[in-house]
Amino acid sequence: MTYDAVVFDNDGVLTHPTPIDVLREATVDGFAAVGVDDPDPDHVDRMTLHVTPEDLQAASDAYGVDPEALWRQRDMAFSERQVADMRNGRKPLYEDYDAVRGLDVPRGIVSTNQHRTIEEILDFHGIRGDFNAYYGREMEPASLRRKKPNAHYLDRALADLEADPGRTLFVGDSNSDLEAAANAGTDAAFLWRDHREDYDLSATPDHELDTLHDLHDIA
């Protein structure tokens, strides 16, 4: 089928992912901002990727800090480190990005990254005008329950695009993207970037892509 709208994840789909060492440094910065200068490495790991509300609460309890303050500082540090990394040339658009501009349908972005970071990425690369809707997370603990695989932000993008979920394609590079698409009622395309070479899929996507150019065969 052809689609009336296409929504993209960002990191690993449109732009190269930020290196994990940069993200861990940002987490350490976030702890330091609330007075925790030597956090346990396990807490750093759990507060860097795939963070749950329980991870945040456990880290906050361990150091006697306010979870909302810790999360805001962690997210702010994440955003600042990623933007600095991008300005140093380490978060470029993928070479096949022009395929996005070639799609003659409304386009959106739904990311688990901070909304502030997504706006910075769009402006730095001069691509804000390529998208009719874009969503990242708010810098607050409640966003941990709204992020993918929850369909919250994807539902908001679909509403902005005035798109029928059944005629929309969500393009991602993770199982949480596939699950978010299922939860929102859209089709899903999994993009096999180099960093996903040995990735195990938890579900069968409607489409599998080697490059964004493959979208022109289906969208």
UniProtKB/TrEMBL annotation:
Keyword Hydrolase annotated: yes
Protein family membership: Belongs to the HAD-like hydrolase superfamily.
Listed InterPro entries: HAD-like_hydrolase_sf, HAD-like_sf, HAD-SF_hydro_IA, HAD_sf
Superkingdom of this protein's organism: Archaea
GO molecular function: phosphoglycolate phosphatase activity
Gene Ontology annotations of biological process type: DNA repair
Keyword set, alphabetical order: Hydrolase
Name this protein carries in UniProt: HAD-IA family hydrolase
PANTHER family, per the entry: PHOSPHOGLYCOLATE PHOSPHATASE
Coiled-coil blocks: none
Residues annotated as transmembrane: none
Keyword Hydrolase listed: yes
